[in-house]
Amino acid sequence: MTAESIVDNPGSTASGPAVLVLEDGSRYVGRAYGVVGSTFGEAVFATGMTGYQETLTDPSYAGQIVLMTAPHIGNTGVNDEDMESSRIWVSGFVVRDPSRVVSNFRAERGLGDDLEAGGIVGISGIDTRAVTRHIRAAGAMRAGIFSGGGFGLSDGEQLDQVRSGVEMSGRNLSAEVSTSESFTLEARGERVGSVAVLDLGVKTSTLGFLAERGFEVVVLPQTVTAAEVLALQPSALFFSNGPGDPGASDRHVELLREVLRAGVPYFGICFGNQLLGRALGFGTYKLPFGHRGINQPVLDKATGRVEITSQNHGFAVDLPIEGVSDSSEGFGRVEVSHYSLNDNVVEGLNCLDIPAFSVQYHPESAAGPHDANYLFDRFRDLVIAQNPVVTNGDDT
User: Fold this and answer.
1) Which segments are annotated as binding site for L-glutamine?
2) What is the value of pTM for the model shown?
3) Confidence grade of residue 129 (pLDDT, cut at 50, 70, 90)
4) Which of this chain's residues are annotated to bind L-glutamine (predicted)?
């Protein structure tokens, strides 16, 4: 159960009417799904045809009411292996047609079971295509789902509660999703060095892919300082994905600048891409409705190859996609390495004078596609190039 939720009867199977209310007054009446109650967050849509479990358990979705554009959700059930974290993070869940049966050999339970166990207030039976088209036109906005006692409130009372909710702009959610204690994953195969991972909402599959590349993965809470990171003498630094506004993460930006000035190689994804942009001296801005799903086309400028990528972000780096820019923070030349073919949004940064790069999308993409998985190899190669001795299994 999220801080934005009020659950009438935790653990009970939802039934009865429900309504999704957007802050512009739009209303969509359906049936309660998950648990009965009221919940609030930013309404966004995810376009993946598969991977609903990975979406629900991705910490980057904290604070958001997620609408699935695929009409039939829950047919493959859920399992422990596909969890991207220890819990469901969405503030609310919106689907058109929840599956009445589970039919998959990997399923261990139904999706409804996890929604109920997690105290997730949802709604089903509404025209999700109409909601998606509305959000595309009007932009992501605050919303609320009301069932049970909340459904009985007047339209005006429901709208007032929605409009009193916290906006995503200016919101820092790192403390809500980050680990409270550091922990380490051993390298798999030949050890090539250690990577300090700042957990801003990191996913399990990301850590696994780093370990598979021979990194000892040291996962750190978002409260860590630059001095503490450097004291570990890591071979590299990694900033994870995460929720919230990058403009509200000044402390993490300063941490990154200090570690970059120490010459430590860096790789960032999603939120980590936005924070690299800020560390280099560039701004960020909020997208009208963001990129969320596992079918987002991106162009790799270096190769001309189009990658289909997994994305979940509502903010982007403000930088021209052509030409080379100079970092106002003294980090030299920077170029946009990837950009979205849907709207020309910056999807990757490459530093030409320091060992640092980042992408806006999720190369681990446990639910697929796997077009961008090579980026973990690129990171490994960058670290080895900067620290040749690590090929002998010794990064001291």
Assistant:
1) 60, 242, 244, 271, 274, 312, 314-315
2) 0.90
3) very high
4) 60, 242, 244, 271, 274, 312, 314-315
